[in-house]
Each structure stands twice: as C-alpha cells, then as structure tokens.
Specification:
By secondary structure, the chain is mainly alpha-helical. It is 49% helix and 4% strand.
C-alpha cells in the first residue's frame, strides 16, 4: 500500500532476523561450536538454551547492564582491563 515505511519507535535496536545483535551472538557461538564438532543437534539445543537464559538474564535491560554485571562477578583478567580497578576492591581511597 504505502511506498515508505515509518518506524514506530526511533530507538528500537537493529535486528538480525528476529534477534538483536547480542542475542544473535549468544545463539550463534554455541551453534557454530556444534557444527564444528559435528554435534549439530547438541549445538542447536545449547544455542536455544543460552538464548533463553540470556533473555531471562537481561529481562528488558540494556546490553551495558550485562557487561557491568560481568565486570562485577567475573575474574578481573576476563575483560583484560588495565585502567579500571579490580571489582573486588571495595574501598578506593582511604
């Protein structure tokens, strides 16, 4: 009918298929692992499981919330940050 589509929300994230970029990567990595190890069904099940778990973890929050939670709970060498202090230091000055 219309020649032009007008987005309903300007701040919607870009999608790859039905998923945002971070959700797609969470699904893509286990699936590729399954293909490379010739366990496609197990990779597909792991991909769907990690996607579902990631959606529950994120639960309407932004991607930065997941990164901040990872910084707080994962070991300091995981992100390789040299400028930021380790997350286990609770008292910065004093």
């Amino acid at each position: 009918m219309d020649r032009f589509t007008i987005p309903r929300h300007l701040d919607d994230p870009e999608l790859i298929g039905f998923w945002t970029l971070d959700e797609f990567l969470v699904m893509f990595i286990p699936f590729v692992w399954g293909v490379l190890t010739q366990h496609v069904v197990i990779g597909l099940i792991c991909a769907v499981g990690t996607w579902f778990g990631y959606r529950k973890l994120r639960a309407g929050r932004s991607m930065s919330w997941v990164l901040h939670a990872g910084y707080w709970h994962l070991p300091g060498a995981f992100f390789g940050l040299r400028v930021c202090p380790p997350s286990h230091l609770r008292l910065m000055a004093g």
